[in-house]
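Our consortium's second objective concerns turning raw sequence data into structural hypotheses that experimental partners can test. To show how far this objective has progressed, the report includes one record in full. It was chosen at random from the queue rather than selected for favorable results. The single chain below, 338 residues long, was entered without modification.
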Amino acid sequence: MKKIVVLFLILAIMLGATSVFAGGGSQAKQQQKVVVQIGLENHPGEPVTDGIYEWKRIAEEMSKGTLEVQVFPSSQLGSKNEIIDQMLAGMGVITLADGGFFADRGAPDMGITMGPYFFASWDEAWRLIDSQWWKDQSKILESKGLKILASNWIYGDRHTLTKRPIRTVADFRGLKLRVPNNLMQIKGTEVMGATPTPMPLGEVYTSLQQGVIDGVENPLPVLYGGKFHEVAKYLTLDAHIKLLTTWFCGTQFFNTLSKEHQDILIESGRQAGLYNNVLATKAAEDSIALFKAEGVEIINVDIAAFQRQAQPFYTMPDVIKDWSPGLVETTNRAKAGR
């Protein structure tokens, strides 16, 4: 009889425990730690990488530890396109990209932001991302599986580092220039007269060494951080793209997060962007002296001549074939805050 009573007591305890666990399931789910991975091609010490660690700090602090942000620089999670594919498969990863990549991923109008000399100032860039046009484009991208989290990060003015000097537009002829693998930057390079060679940033150093490419373009801190100047000694300050950084994740993953975690990721990303912008501006200024100290020739060019060479980009059939009618005029109004 005692054994039966004991068995009933054990059973009751087990059922009670199961009931408490089941009843508290939603609460346990809310308290469960969420791990987010941020992967980027940039190296430690670059402003954008330091900005990511600030994002990690702010997000984890705001979430009281229920969000864990893991950072993977130097292409540890793969190339940009490989990370985007991971997002579309539902993985909890974040990376950075720009309008050129978004154009190839279902939001073709966003590609115009990567046109050569599209932005005349950072103020134009900030007015554009605050506009209804940007909000509408972000919704289109979200419907294609990609959710923008932050767009207020300065990546920098993109300049050109080469193995032979570029002093005039004519010097681009025959130059094999590494570009990111998206149509907008490929065509933007073609219009300047160079031969675009798409490849991940992680392959650039050895490709310069082996003569696969003659040059690479990127903001100054990225060029210096990649040590590309060890094998290419001519830096042309052409500032052909004023590039803002956009951070995003997969829509599928974002929708699995609680509203609180969604808001934290977005707000902490915005705050980290302001931190990044201070670092990026200073790093760009400091980079010139660093390049000079390591034997790089700094070349200033006639920017107006480069801008004139670039204008046909905005009428190239391969570029505009998927653009909405009047896109140039629409974005010009948005950049002006109208």
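The partners drew two points from this record. The mean pLDDT is 91. Residues 3 and 9 are 10 Å apart (CA to CA). Both points have been shared with the crystallography group to help prioritize constructs.
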